[in-house]
């Protein structure tokens, strides 16, 4: 399965992003409102970073930078590691594991298509295995597939 298939299945097609000059507090409110763990950081149509709960915990809280007094540009991860919509799920899991990422922006050239999370990948893999088990059960019991 490829990343594009995950993007197609996601309910929200809206790209959730903030600007580098957004207050950390506002970014945290957006994370909470949308029940997500990271936001893309964009300057116009250009991806310039990613801001996550982990960024705030490690670069904000632990360094005494408070959310109302800090800006996303001060805590975001940049440069950003991205994947293409044609990347395989296995490749994404390898990247996330090796680099300790939980989110990967998906880009086609310079165009931002969305973002996938480790949860998106796990759900996709679980679905594949459930389908495989169902098919094998049908095969073993003699039911048509």
Brief characterization of the structure:
By secondary structure, this protein is of the alpha+beta class.
Task: Give a structural overview.
Keywords: CBS domain. This is CBS domain containing protein. By secondary structure, this protein is of the alpha+beta class. It has one domain (3-141): CBS-domain (Roll). The chain has helices at 3-9, 24-34, 53-60, 72-75, 89-99, 118-141, and strands at residues 17-18, 38-43, 46-52, 103-108, 111-117. The strands form 2 sheets. It has a 3-stranded mixed beta sheet. A two-stranded antiparallel ribbon has the order 4-5. Strand 4 (103-108) and strand 5 (111-117) form a beta hairpin. The longest helix is centred in the C-terminal third of the chain and has 24 residues, at 118-141. The radius of gyration is 18 Å and the shape is elongated. The two termini are 20 Å apart. The relative contact order is 0.18.
CATH topology description: CBS-domain
- Gyration radius from CA atoms, angstroms: 18 Å
* Low-confidence runs: none
The strand line-up of the biggest sheet is 1-2-3
Number of domains: 1
CATH structural architecture: Roll
Dominant shape: elongated
Under CATH, the homologous superfamily reads: CBS-domain
Distance between the first and last residues' Cα: 20 Å
Percent helix, as a range, is: 40-55%
Strand-helix topology:
Layout: H1 3-9, E1 17-18, H2 24-34, E2 38-43, E3 46-52, H3 53-60, H4 72-75, H5 89-99, E4 103-108, E5 111-117, H6 118-141
Parallel strand pairs: 1-2
Antiparallel strand pairs: 2-3, 4-5
Helix pairs in contact: 5-6
């Amino acid at each position: 399965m490829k990343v594009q298939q995950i993007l197609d299945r996601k309910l929200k097609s809206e790209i959730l992003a903030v600007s580098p000059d957004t207050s950390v507090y506002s970014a945290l409110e957006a994370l909470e409102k949308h029940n997500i763990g990271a936001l893309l950081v964009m300057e116009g149509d250009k991806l310039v970073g990613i801001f996550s709960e982990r960024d705030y915990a490690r670069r904000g809280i632990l360094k005494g930078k408070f959310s109302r007094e800090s800006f996303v540009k001060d805590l975001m991860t940049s440069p950003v590691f991205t994947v293409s919509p044609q990347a395989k799920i296995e490749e994404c899991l390898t990247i996330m594991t090796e680099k300790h990422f939980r989110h990967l922006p998906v880009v086609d050239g310079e165009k931002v298509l969305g973002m996938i999370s480790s949860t998106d990948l796990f759900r996709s893999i679980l679905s594949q295995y459930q389908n495989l088990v169902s098919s094998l059960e049908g095969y073993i019991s003699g039911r048509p597939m």
